[in-house]
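Sample entry (552 residues):
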Amino acid sequence: MTLPTANCRNWNPVIDEHQRFGANSVGPSAKVRGQAALAARIKYFSKRIEAGIMAEPAPETRREIPVQGGLSNKAVQGMAEFVKTHYLDARLGVLGRSYQELWSETKDSVELSWTLSAPSGPNPFLDAGTGPRATLAITPTSVAVTSTGLDAGFPGARQLFQRAADEIEVLVTTYIARARTTSMYFILSSGKSQTMKDVPASDSTGKEAMKTLMAGNMLNVYLIIMAASFGLFFIIGVDAIFVVLGLQLVVLFFSDRLALRGGRVHPTADRPKVTLVSIPVSPETKQIVTKYASNIVSDTREKLEHALSVESPEDSAVAASVKTIMTNSGFKSAPDDVRIVTRDVYDLVKGVADRFRMPVPKIVITNNIADNAAATGVSPRRAAISITAGSLEDLDDPELSSVIGHEFGHVKGRDPLILFSVTFLLYVGGLFLWYPLVLYLGIVYYLLVFAVIYAVGKVLETRADTESFAKLGEPAVLASALTNIGFRQLYYERYSPGLKLADWLRFDPHPPIYFRVQRLSRFASLHSQVKHTLLVSIRDCASGFFSALLGR
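Predicted structure, serialized as tokens:
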């Protein structure tokens, strides 16, 4: 490593390890720190509104980066190395002696400190020999970026810290996302002897494709069926339209059952809790295990089922037993590397259903590391909600409830039925009602059709956001969840303004993340009831698109 380590003569590692790094023996728990991070984020959004600044956040002196479940010693060291390699090494020639690196005696916590510098051009802070500093503290329970000396009379220091904090958060979330790709997840419905489970396995290409399609809002499924119909016309002629209609109706009316095939764990009132057990392994080990899962993990699965067949799977003794099982099963990882997360998923979904005054839909947990949830179904009584393992691991209860509320907004508004109607109307209309227009415009017509369909999808996604905070009353919490889920995209949209318009023009049913977070932050300051969620959503989408078009 090319970075120097500071020689801090006055640093007492025995004392400072606890005072500065918050070691586990005296510091708050990861859960408490996670709640503190959420509270800080909500306060952050509120300050943005009070200051009347929507596009730019208020000045910060501390950025708490949410890390649910804590970090192992290996993860702390790996994250520090990742930040140094991809951020500080590139600036080492500028930072010089201003860079300091302080490790705790047990090597489980670190502080990286440097003088703030502009990405390019002269640096008045370094030239003066002093100036504001940024410090990244990585501990087993938290990751935070803090600043000192912002009020020392250096113009632009706050903007530099804001940029540095954003870049560090992008790197931290990227590191965590990459680490997950080489982790294996065991998902079990805990608390009963008849345990359902989902283990690492290599699914067929068709099954993986179905999982991906059903993880969205059904729009992609309808479009694929429409595209396939053009081939059918060469085989069966005009009758292809009835085939397309039949396929779309089958998918629509049985979409809840199709969604349940995306995972093997289905929380119910009898089995409300879900436990995730993840263990980091090498890419080679993961490939072997997923390819031959039925032979390799069966013994580990049975032991986990037995350990978790208790009423309180989150008990510390159970956690210790699970860690022992995983480390004794041939996986080359230390017990501290094993992460265990238990969530009462059914209770969370039922709480949201009660607020919406709707029945509890079928629930499925998918073995997917992405932070996502999806809802489908022709009606509230024929609905299903899928929640990924990544969401259970990353989002706390308020954030996860707000995301589930967004999915209930889709079910309440019968969005799958609306998307079916729009796609089929445009499909049939192009063949019979305005066929001369299709001949005249050619491929342009189908580009316009896709644009209309995805515009409808963006409005429905915006309405689902509106329904969520209208029923749950927490727009700032949903904004926080979206920030956690899409922070990297938010970063690119903020520092590359041209991407804002590009995100509106993408063939994607979701509006840009920046627009959704900005909009939710605005509603958090209004404290008013939204009566017509669809009309408000149409208005806001139109306003957001034209603002991006005009470069505002």
